[in-house]
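User: Hello, can you help with two protein structures?

Assistant: Certainly.
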Amino acid sequence: MSFQITENFVQQFGSNFKILGQQRMSRLAAYCQAEPNIVGTSKTVERLGKTDAYDIESRHADTKYVNTPHSRRWLDLQDKAWADLVDEMDKIKMLADPTSPYNALGVAALNREKDKIILAAARGSARINGGSVALPSGQKIAVGAAGMTLDKLNAAREILDAAEVDVDDGTGQGAPLRCIAVTARQLTNLLNTTEIKSVDYNNVKALAQGQVDTFLGFKFIRTQLVPKVGNDRMCLAWSKGSIAFGWGMDVVTSIDKLPTKNLSVQVYARESIGAVRTEDEGVVEIACLES
């Protein structure tokens, strides 16, 4: 009986790659005011403030002119890139060629950068001429030693309603313009804090299971990219017109052999993107405990 036969056992290696779980597409860009094809490093977003009508007090009275308030905010582009090398000598030692999956990974990474920039702009300082504007304290809902609750959602809705922020797109089709970015934990919070058998519980259950994506007038967008400060997750509710997302260059990719790297294949992707909060009253930060 041979004890060396195990030396001839066959090992089978994978012929493809499994891309592990990750957010691959931007989930927030479609719910912002689009500013495409920006030329230069920045673009202004022009704003017009509220005006009041006046009384006509007599026939043939002189026309009165209101003073329409103008202001602007700046959308600054940020350049982002992703690159990795595939050694030609490594490729011949593997059944699977990683070049195409690498390209997909690069695009996914840049798409996540879009959402990070949008979230940072929503709760950060917006650049104006000669300075910047922070998100006012009145647009922030305190954590209150709790996660996401119905009370917090109702408070956010009330803040937006009081500012007369648009609810839909005005087409009569009811397309929601109010969105809220949350992580998986906040959906769990809502399920755990809503009474069993109530209508609210059934609606939240359907929301958490992906059967519906709207609740209390908000389109819920789940992303684990929502920023965390200490033990608090800073969820954000906003109206579509209150955050502008722009790009000078959307994601572009290239795959090239590099003579200076012994003909290794470079997988490269880049973009030039930016975002700015255009209306403070249309953004609400909701602090949720997530220890």
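That covers the first. Now for the second protein you mentioned:
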Amino acid sequence: MPHAAHVASPAADRAPRPALNVGELSAAGLRAFAKIAEAWALSTDEQIRLLGSPGRSTFFKWKSAPQSARLGRDTLERLSLILGIYKALQILLPEPQAADGWIKRPNSAPPFGGRPALDRMLAGNVSDLVAVRQYLDAMRGGWA
């Protein structure tokens, strides 16, 4: 009797992935954001606007106790984009002062129209963060 070959299903080839815990993602994202905000010398108002304008009391709760934050999808998306912008700048401009100062320098590239990238990022829409991230990805030679 011929031996049948074992055919594994695609699901069997993947190790189980741990469930993403919103609390853990929120805390990690907020801790990273605090370090980026410090590196970029962002004011409290700028930080609040980048996070999607939560109330001031909510922002300060998040800041003092990130482990207890449960961020919504919009805020998590904003954090992800900001982390990506930060990382792209670190790759493009290996000198930390140049990378951290880039967002506040006037920029003649089309997405910025002579204004600093931070102005675009502070416009209030997630799409503005996406535009900055895509610009930097294109500068790195990645997808835009």
